[in-house]
């Protein structure tokens, strides 16, 4: 029987030990400790709209502090001049809230860092639309942002 050189056996043994030490990997758990996981998306409430992202202040100006960039917000950003897109996957936008959503302005709910780069840009946003909260007095419907992309060669007024 031929003998394997010592260095081949050593490398093989060290590799096996290193792989075994890694374990099965992280199969469960929260990727951001201390932050509750969101509910899975409800495709029936999902719509796609295009429009311009603006600050939700009366003068149209705003800012987010550096320590608030990773915080969620539903009151800092608006999508204005919104137009509904009908090219969506089957089964989306079938709920009453989604069917009745014809607003020209939406409050946007997302992490601040997801929307700051798009302020002043024309974008396409997909997300879940929510009915107006009871007693909210005619404010805009809220859109929980799932995806946002800047539209090429498009400007906002």
Range of helix content: 10-25%
The structural class is alpha+beta
Calculate the mean pLDDT score and round it. Answer: 79
Query: Beta-strand percentage?
Result: 25-35%
Briefly, what CATH class of the domain at 43-150?
Mainly Beta
Question: Order of helices and strands, N to C?
Answer: HEEHEHEE
Radius of gyration: 24 Å
* CATH fold-level name of the domain at 43-150: OB fold (Dihydrolipoamide Acetyltransferase, E2P)
* Shape-level CATH architecture of the domain at 43-150: Beta Barrel
Strand tally, please? 5
What profile does the largest beta sheet have?
A: 5 strands, mixed, barrel
- Regions with pLDDT < 50 over 5+ consecutive residues? none
| Shape designation | elongated
How many H/I helical runs?
3
Quaternary state reads single chain
SSE layout and pairings?
Layout: H1 6-22, E1 46-55, E2 72-85, H2 96-99, E3 106-111, H3 112-115, E4 122-130, E5 142-150
Parallel strand pairs: 3-5
Antiparallel strand pairs: 1-2, 1-4, 2-3, 4-5
How do you describe this structure in short?
With 157 residues, this protein is α+β, with helices and mostly antiparallel strands. 16% of the residues lie in helices and 31% in strands.
Explained architecture:
The chain has three helices and five strands, in the order H-E-E-H-E-H-E-E. It is an alpha+beta fold and about 160 residues long. The chain has a domain at about 45-150: Beta Barrel (OB fold (Dihydrolipoamide Acetyltransferase, E2P)). The N and C termini lie far apart (about 80 Å). The mean pLDDT is about 80.
